[in-house]
Amino acid sequence: MLKTLFYNTIFLFSFVLYPQSADVEMLPYGNMDDWMVREIEESYIIGGNTQYLYEVTNEKDTLKNNQPYKNNKSPWATSSVYANINGVKKGSVTVFPEERPGNGLAAH
Questions:
Q1: In the sheet that 50-56 helps form, which strands lie side by side, from edge to edge?
Q2: For the chain, how many structural domains are there in total?
Q3: Is 50 part of any domain?
Q4: Does a structural domain hold residue 18?
Q5: Does the residue 46 lie in any domain?
Q6: Residue 59 domain-assigned (yes or no)
Q7: DSSP 8-state code for residue 102
Q8: Is the pLDDT of residue 7 over 60?
Q9: Which end of the chain is more exposed for a tag (fewer CB within 10 A), N or C?
Q10: What is the DSSP letter of 29?
Q11: 78 three-state secondary structure
Q12: Which residues contact residue 69 at a Cβ distance below 8 angstroms, ignoring those fewer than 6 apart?
């Protein structure tokens, strides 16, 4: 309830402070609805977990087998990372999609 009230208040103030006009240009991927997933298998020595790393991009795909990826299309970057140091593989998830109130996704 409180979270919904907060989102609705921010949404309302955004229209009061920055009204939509004909000269407004939307940011590419600004709606945060398109995400790609990288499935990372971590090394057994540090737990052997499967991590899912997310990127905001129009490539709606799941990359597997610890495949490297560099996002060249979207202006949005995440700080989720994959490291392979001397054969020890580790993923760190810091940004992931979350459902917005109503519809669509947001970065969490």
A1: 50-56, 35-41, 62-63
A2: 1
A3: yes
A4: no
A5: yes
A6: yes
A7: S
A8: no
A9: N
A10: T
A11: coil
A12: 36, 38, 55, 63
Q: State both tokens at 47.
A: 């737990």
Domain coverage including residue 91 = 28-107
> Other CB atoms closer than 10 Å to residue 38's CB: what's the count?
22
In this predicted model, what pLDDT tens digit does every residue of 48-107 receive, in sequence order? Answer: 889 888 888 777 778 787 777 777 777 777 777 888 888 888 888 888 888 888 787 877
Q: CB pairs under 8 A, 24+ apart, for 84-91?
A: 87/43, 88/43, 88/45, 88/46, 89/40, 89/41, 89/42, 89/43, 90/42, 90/43, 90/46, 91/38, 91/40, 91/42, 91/51, 91/53
- Tokens encoding 83: 């490291």
In this structure, the chain runs to a length of: 108
Contact 59, 73 (CB under 8 A): yes
